[in-house]
Specification:
Radius of gyration of chain B: 23 Å
Distance between the termini of chain A: 34 Å
Strand content of chain B: 15-25%
Helix content of chain A: 10-25%
Oligomer: heterodimer
Largest sheet of chain B: 2 strands, antiparallel
Number of helices of chain B: 2
Amino acid sequence: MKFILPLAIFASTALGSSAAPLSFDFTDPKGVNTINFNMDAPLESINGNAKGVTGRVQFDPSFPANTTGIIELDTASLQVANSTMRDHMIGEKWMDVKNHPDIRFTVANLNNVEVAGNVTTAEVVGEITIKGVTRQITADATLTYLKGKLKARMGPRGPDGDLLVIRTKFVVNRSDFGINAGQNTDKVADDIEISLSIAGQSAY
Amino acid sequence: MRFILRKIAALLLMSGILVWLIGGARLRFPTDQEQIATFDPITEIESSDWHPKFLPGVESLAFGGILAGSFFLLSFLFRANTHQEPIQ
């Protein structure tokens, strides 16, 4: 009998440390998840966003370095202030939405992880696939784990659960992904600054 | 006639400038959608939604200027009003 208590403590500690990571769904019912992009060319600055974010990220608050996941963006949700420009952007010459309906970010692992309270800062290592071209990518990111905040966000009838907010910024070159490479660079910059601010939910 | 055409030219130029100023004096191309910022207090994510709204760009200024210039040049095709009162 005297072994039962220490055994129980050991078991609970061992189970606790090897708990499965939480799976966060980034399909946001509130429609807040946004991926912004900005292109600053000599003659024109183009900025817009896209809200068709889906995907899942596995995050373990005890071991944030083991974070993995996939975030997908519906290319048809790309939006700019001018509808004619948008038609060009999603057309065959540029993003070719018909043949390449999504952009995919794959998170392989996190490096240089620093945790301060519920905020994890790290270097995200992964891949980005645009127009069927996959490139390695490294970007600084902030992951904010909001334990038990899902109900507060979704309202009193919403489920209990946690939230994970990911913020990151990085630059890709459109020429690397065959987005009308080398053309119209006076009006459409080669560098595309991308910033993500997305929230995922994990219901209990 | 020359005077009328020049008056029209001035009006067109002023209209172009006025439309451009009212539209926010933007040195960009026209847009037909406006971004309205939103904020989610729980996640603290700043986002934006698009709403239809026409905002003229620098082209309204240029268009007004070109039209005004055309009318001004057109005015030279007509003689200036040199009618003088007969000397009594």
